[in-house]
Amino acid sequence: MQSTLVLIKPDGVQRQLTGTILARIEAKGYVVTDLRLVQPDRTRLEEHYAEHQGKPFFEPLVEFMLSGPSVAIRLEGDRVIEGFRSLAGTTDPTTAAPGTIRGDLGRDWGLKVQQNLVHGSDSEESAARELALWFD
Ligand code: RTP
Ligand code: MG
């Protein structure tokens, strides 16, 4: 059994898609074992996205993530790290496959790629680090 950190990002919360996204996650069979609405500070976000420091999208990404609360979710299931990223779809909502969260619900008109509704940890190491960061 694996655990992963899922975030419903500020665009998802603001668009009132939390229930819709959670329904897709639960329908797949993954189990929510912790959940909270969080307004993260800059320090936490810079740590969360440390691998992207120095990239051109880093600062706009942090600013976007500061723009409103996110829903942080601890999710459990068999191969849930890979499985949730498959449910989420690829990074850019414009080209994310239909049937995925980003492909079906991501708005691509007039928005930037960072507004892609969700985050999911990408490895067991990232999941452990990110779960500690968001859930203490
Ligand atoms: P995530 O970490 O959020 O689950 O998504 P990901 O693996 O698909 O994307 P990653 O490459 O880790 O990038 C993290 C977030 O940064 C924003 N991003 N913007 N070119 C760009 O403007 C750009 N590239 C990435 C997205 O919000 C992405 O989810
Ligand atoms: Mg990533």
Written overview of the protein:
This protein has 136 residues and is of the alpha+beta class. It has one domain (2-135): Nucleoside diphosphate kinase-like domain (Alpha-Beta Plaits). It is built from seven helices and four strands; from the N terminus they run βααβααβααβα. It has helices spanning 10-14, 18-28, 42-48, 58-66, 80-88, 101-105, 124-135; strands spanning 2-8, 31-38, 70-77, 118-120. Strands 2-3-1-4 form a four-stranded antiparallel sheet, sandwiched between helices. The longest helix is centred in the last third of the chain and has 12 residues, at 124-135. The chain is globular, with a radius of gyration of 14 Å. The site of ribavirin triphosphate (RTP) has 9 residues, from strand 4.
Give a short synopsis of this structure.
The active site is at 119 (pros-phosphohistidine intermediate). With 136 residues, this protein is of the alpha+beta class.
Characteristic key phrases:
136 residues; alpha+beta; Alpha-Beta Plaits; four-stranded antiparallel sheet; 4 strands; globular; binds ribavirin triphosphate; binds magnesium ion
Q: What percent of the residues sit in helical stretches (DSSP H or I)? A: 40-55%
* Strand portion: 15-25%
The structural domain count equals: 1
| CATH topology (fold) name | Alpha-Beta Plaits
Which regions contain 5 or more consecutive residues with pLDDT less than 50?
none
CATH architecture call:
2-Layer Sandwich
- Which CATH top level class fits? Alpha Beta
Number of helices: 7
Mean pLDDT across every amino acid position: 95
Report the radius of gyration as a whole number of Å: 14 Å
Task: Count the beta strands.
Answer: 4
Amino-to-carboxy terminus distance: 21 Å
Principal-axes shape call:
globular
SSE ordering = EHHEHHEHHEH
User: Could you name the CATH homologous superfamily?
Assistant: Nucleoside diphosphate kinase-like domain
